[in-house]
Amino acid sequence: MVFFVLKRLAQSVLVMLVVALIAFALFRYVGDPVNNMVGQDTTLEQREQLRDELGLNDAVFVQFGRFIGNAVQGNFGQSYRLREPVTDLLAQRFPATFELSVVSAILALAIGIPMGVYTALNRRSILSRSFMTLSLVGISLPTFLIGILLILIFGVILRWLPTFGRGDVVSIGGWTTGFLTKSGLESLIMPAITLAIFQMTLVVRLIRAEMLEVLRADYVKFARARGLTSRTINFSIALKNTLVPVMTIIGLQIGSIIAFAIITESVFQWPGMGLLFIQAIQNVDIPVMAAYLLLIAFIFVVINLVVDVLYFVVDPRLRVQGR
Amino acid sequence: MKRWFTTGALALTMMAGQAQAETFSWAYQGDVQSLDPHGLNETFTLGFLGNVYEGLTTYDAKLELQPLLATEWENTDPTHWRFKLRENVTFHNGNPFTADDVIFSWNRGKTPGSDMKGYSAKISDIKKVDDHTIEVTTPTPNAILPRDLTLFYIMDKEWSEENKAGEATSPKDANGASSFAASHENGTGPFIVVSRQPDVKTTFKLYDGYWNKELKSNVTDVVFTPISEDATRTAALLSGNLDMVYPVPIQDWPRLEGAQGVKVLNAPDVRTVFLGMDQFRDELLYSSVKGKNPLKDKRVREAMAHAIDLGAINQKVMRGAANPTGLLIGPQVNGYNEELGKPYDYDADAAKKLLADAGYPDGFELGMDCPNNRYVNDELICRAVATYLARIGIKIELNAQPKSTYFAKVSPQSGNDTSFYMLGWTPTTVDADNALFNLVHSFGKESGAGQFNYGHYSNPEIDGLITQIQNETDQAKRQDLINQAFKLLKDDVGYLPVHQQPLSWGVRDTVEVQQRADDVLDFRNVMMK
């Protein structure tokens, strides 16, 4: 087990290297950062000098090598746009993204799983059908549009909730949290719902499909034949067996909640890493883009690892093989 | 319960007795890169910092030159100026403002990290006559030196040296000794930065030791939030969360006009948008014409000028708020001439004839580069231009791209890789010379002239006039030279000016703000009702 975890962590280094290399190969197509770093009166010569000093004239492999060399020492450089060390920026922004993602994931699971189970067990009820129709709407509407609609209804028309930002935050040992203030919590509601809707609908459909599959299995029929209560059958047997494939998908989805909070964050001007990243793209802020992509690659690898470990917990058969 | 009530009432009475606190909250599409006044020479950054720092001179709400830290000045001989400095001015930390601070700031502007080197270079020496008088020497006669100094902000010598901020913050070094001034300020301006989280929030409060006690504004606190998404910015205004947001996309104007309690301010921007053409290659990079460059033929350029209906573009794309023009500078700019400012006539038949005379009766194909997130409705304008040119047979292959890739492609670093392009220009000095020197003067890599003349338009006669304009200190003669230069350019059809774009500020009715044509929000011009 320990060996397995270590092996996966070693593989993750490889994944991150590949991600960084691809990223660096693509940066040359994003544009020229220097134009955003100087004013219009700056001479060509000064621009060229700056480009040279930043190492932008070097070959991709040289730039990549230098980046990896520094990254190994924990130095990710300085943001071209905000002129602060990238690690500081990411550390400042991480709490915002993390809190938003966690709340969204909890929302998606807490609402999605019961809805999925219900629709699988009561396939023909009107409520199930309306759940399914709603989930179709949720899965089809782009996140951007959902965010804007919420802002329009609850921000502009009803004026119940703030339309942008994170409200007042409390700083606890370098971690800023919006959970402790009224405006912080109010500000969290709309972005969290926006981010959760897609995941939630996905969970509903996934649980339903898997559950229907499992309910047809022989061991469920056998359990019924044994005269077990349907409660035991549905939740202890069917739901548990549903969870294995669902977990893989949900694990990856949590990764994508963090990674793709970008759109939600930019709609709500939520000061997280996604917003930092999208602004980095617009301004060709190479150090920020590189560090962000590495971090996201790392998060995905870790989540995959956690999911794999959870298999052992949920599925006893794997434990037997593992020995 | 009763006691509680009395205490509450007492608190209320006390609050009413205090001077009224007026908080002004606003949003812009981006944040400043740093608080260093010499770090980035860009309009929004310098405009933002102009509330905190001050220069010797300034522009008022109508872009008229006004004294600020200097009270009066005199051009003693063509290359010498004497400035009288304002007395009883203090920096935010209480240090007095003196001639030493001016000299220090000028030197700081020359340090490697500075993006204001061009401004420092306009002065070759500053001598301190006494604490509040300086004598400035310019390398060449310069009639508009006081205009050149509006955005050159003065820092406190002592404070900067104490905090190792004697050199301008460079975009390169992360933990460099000079980065203190990037996150802290100590200006002489009316507002103090109280807190700042880059990209998230910056708060200001009124500096009670500000020298000008007759400040028009009644604002005491300011909260600034950058909001990058257009729709979110507009919503923040409509929801009542903010007092002012800008820029508002033109397509959102009807929503603001239909909403209660908000309005759009859309005076013309000093920025002029125009189209440039490759006039130096012997064969265009992006065209069906091989072996020659049709854009070198004046008749072709003239045909293009007459083929584009600027009035219709204004009505359809800009909701009638732009100001179609025939000049590269707007009416607010020193040196503007109304006669030359008239656009080329729209006359498609004449255009067709000119094109046929030039040997292209069936037209030709031409590639066009256009930014899609730089100017107001930039891509839409380019598409409209393409439609008009197609009517006379010039088929445009449009390449609309984000500004980062666009500027990397069309700027001199890639050898001006374009045949036909769109650009906008705001003369930072609000003077014609800045536009002539950067856009019209022949391109010279060493001289620094014509850096933004991406199509390498070249007319030696205009080059000569520009040198004369720069050295002429008599304003009437200078204006005459400027007119001559622009007349030659217009006759040559060196550029195809499009329009001055409109500014677009969304403001609550409870706020009264004067809109500066260079898109600068000066808190001094804000009144809360």
Automatic annotation (TrEMBL), chain A:
Membrane topology recorded in Swiss-Prot or TrEMBL: Multi-pass membrane protein
CDD domains the record matches: TM_PBP2
Parts of the chain that traverse the membrane: 12-30, 100-121, 133-161, 188-207, 243-270, 290-314
This protein's UniProt keywords: Cell membrane, Membrane, Transmembrane, Transmembrane helix, Transport
Major subcellular site: membrane
Keyword Lipoprotein: no
SUPFAM superfamilies to which the protein is assigned, alphabetical: MetI-like
Annotated ABC transmembrane type-1 domain residues: 94-311
Family designation: Belongs to the binding-protein-dependent transport system permease family.
Protein name as catalogued: ABC transporter permease
Lineage: Bacteria, Pseudomonadati, Pseudomonadota, Alphaproteobacteria, Hyphomicrobiales
TrEMBL record, chain B:
InterPro entries cross-referenced by the UniProt entry: Peptide/Ni-bd, SBP_5, SBP_5_dom
Gene3D superfamilies xref list: Dipeptide-binding Protein, Domain 3, Periplasmic binding protein-like II
Recorded family membership: Belongs to the bacterial solute-binding protein 5 family.
N-terminal signal peptide: 1-21
Domain called Solute-binding protein family: residue spans: 64-445
Residue spans crossing the bilayer: none
Keyword check for Metal-binding: no
Keyword Transport on entry: yes
Domain of life: Bacteria
Pfam family, one: SBP_bac_5
Keywords: Signal, Transport
Intracellular or extracellular location(s): Periplasm
Name listed for the protein in its UniProt record: ABC transporter substrate-binding protein
Chief location category: periplasm
